[in-house]
Write a structure and sequence with these properties.
Distance between the termini: 59 Å
CATH topology of the largest domain: Rossmann fold
Helix content: 40-55%
CATH class of the largest domain: Alpha Beta
Number of helices: 19
Length: about 475
């Protein structure tokens, strides 16, 4: 059975007492991709329906028995102020038009209705509704309540408040059909966020992922759109593209910033017109797949510098989800480490491992340029090398973390360290004492870790502590097996 997606996600309500007009309007809208429609010919049924059902917009005839369009418009504008109403009038009399607009109409069209004018009005009204949805999503994101269905985000391990706000935003925008752009550094979990959007959308089709990095124009077009038999040498049969596999579902395009200009044009048409042409075919095909794109590039800068098409960027930017790097959600480290240790022990057939509490201060002082993906690799590597059932610091500190504990973004080649001085500069002696005290604080008194943080040997740091009689409530020797 063919899977279908409602466009828009909530129905368009057509209200006209003339059944023939209502039938023509419905057919016209369906032929142009708007397949989620309700029709009423009795004006008395409009308000009861709106009280029991959410709709995307109302197309309302002005001249009807029982309740006129004017009367209904005033009631709808008062009771459902968020709902766009398009008035259909048999007259283009300026007073009638102005009267409708004053009463809250979004737009008006005159009979006989021109198809282009009808479609333009409907698209604009749906764009307004999407903008209102975006504003509501942003309001929910700032207000910070927990998502209504937290199970949708079970694969994203976090207790971070900013991530919870992002979940709220995802829940609010998920039911729509507009594209979503997910941004963030490599390894922050962009595909997991895309899958959460798909799950929250309720779409009946599949989630289909395509990584655009490294694909030339022909391979990208063939992979995305498919081809017909004989389209090129060696095309012995038909191949369905990823866009067809994503019918009624979601197409996730990763590394979108790496697309060539030629491929960007093809993607723009797909997003803008919801249609595509398989290689070698002569018949354009329609798609109802929702497009989600992801990138670790700054697309706004790329667009400004003409490396990325501005029109495609604005199309993708309908909704944007920006995922924070791991260094901005370090409180999630204990949860993530425990999760990855569990996965690693299961994969390697090891017994359950406990985690030394000193491990978390060590990890919190690492910049994680590879984010969560890097943390997972580090944990799996550490579990594979750890002897016994206690995961300690040594397998981390002696492994991939070596030399990386000071790779903080505060210390870059072209910027000053993120240190604030008062009006009077400290002496070198004072500055060194403060630095070591801070390292001991961050390492929770672990001398070995504190030494790594400031670039000293453990022996040198121990001598300094004894010489200057530094006190810390829980100084530890750093015997980190």
């Amino acid at each position: 059975m063919k899977k279908t997606v409602h466009n828009p996600d909530l129905p368009i309500l057509l209200v006209d007492d003339d059944k023939d007009v209502s039938r023509v309007l419905s057919r016209t809208l369906r032929l142009n991709g708007f397949n989620n429609l309700l029709s009423l010919t009795d004006s008395r049924e409009v308000l009861p329906l709106l009280r029991q059902n959410d709709v995307a917009l109302v197309l309302l005839d002005i001249t009807m028995p029982h309740f006129s369009g004017d009367e209904l418009l005033e009631k709808i504008a008062g009771d459902f102020p968020h709902l766009p109403v398009i008035m259909a009038t048999a007259s283009d009399d300026i007073e009638v038009v102005v009267g409708c607009m004053k009463k809250g109409a979004f737009d008006f069209i005159t009979k006989p209705i021109r198809v282009s004018r009808l479609l333009f009005a409907v698209k604009c009204a749906l764009d307004l509704r999407e903008l209102r949805r975006e504003n509501e999503a942003l309001r929910l994101k700032e207000s910070g309540p927990r998502p209504k269905k937290p199970g949708l985000f079970a694969d994203i391990i976090t207790a971070d408040k900013q991530m919870q706000k992002i979940f709220n935003y995802i829940e609010a925008i998920a039911p729509g059909n507009q594209p979503v752009l997910i941004t963030g550094e490599t390894g922050v979990g962009k595909e997991l966020a895309a899958r959460a959007i798909h799950a929250a959308s309720g779409r009946k089709g599949d989630f289909v992922a395509l990584n655009a990095a490294g694909l030339d124009d022909d391979v990208f077009a063939d992979t995305l759109f498919g081809h017909v038999k004989g389209a090129f040498t060696g095309a012995g049969g038909r191949r369905d593209g990823q866009i067809k596999k994503a019918a009624a579902g979601t197409l996730f395009l990763d590394e979108i910033g790496d697309l060539s200009p030629k491929s960007q044009i093809k993607l723009l048409r797909l997003i803008q017109e919801k249609e595509y042409l398989p290689l070698g075919a002569d018949k354009i095909r329609k798609t109802d797949a929702r497009i989600i794109a992801a990138t670790n590039h700054d697309l706004s800068r790329m667009a400004a510098e003409n490396y990325f098409r501005k029109d495609l960027y604005y199309r993708l930017y309908a909704h944007q989800v920006e995922l924070p790097p791991l260094r901005n959600r370090l409180d999630d480290l204990p949860l993530l480490v425990e999760h990855f240790v569990g996965l690693a022990t299961a994969e390697f057939g090891r017994e359950k491992m406990s985690i030394r509490p000193e491990l978390h201060p060590l990890l919190k002082n690492y910049a994680f340029p590879g984010n969560i993906r890097e943390l997972k690799s580090l944990v799996f590597d550490a579990v594979s090398r750890q002897q016994g059932r206690i995961l300690g610091l040594k397998v981390f500190a002696d492994g991939a973390l070596t030399g990386g504990l000071r790779s903080s973004p505060l210390f870059t080649e072209n910027s000053r360290p993120g240190i604030t001085f008062g009006p009077q500069l400290p002496t070198v002696v004072e500055a060194r004492r403060c630095l070591i005290a801070e390292a001991l604080e961050r390492s929770k008194g672990n001398i070995s870790l504190a030494a790594k943080l400031v670039g000293l040997s453990r022996q040198s740091l121990s001598q300094y502590i004894r010489k200057h009689n530094l006190k810390f409530s829980s100084l530890k020797s750093g015997n980190d097996s």
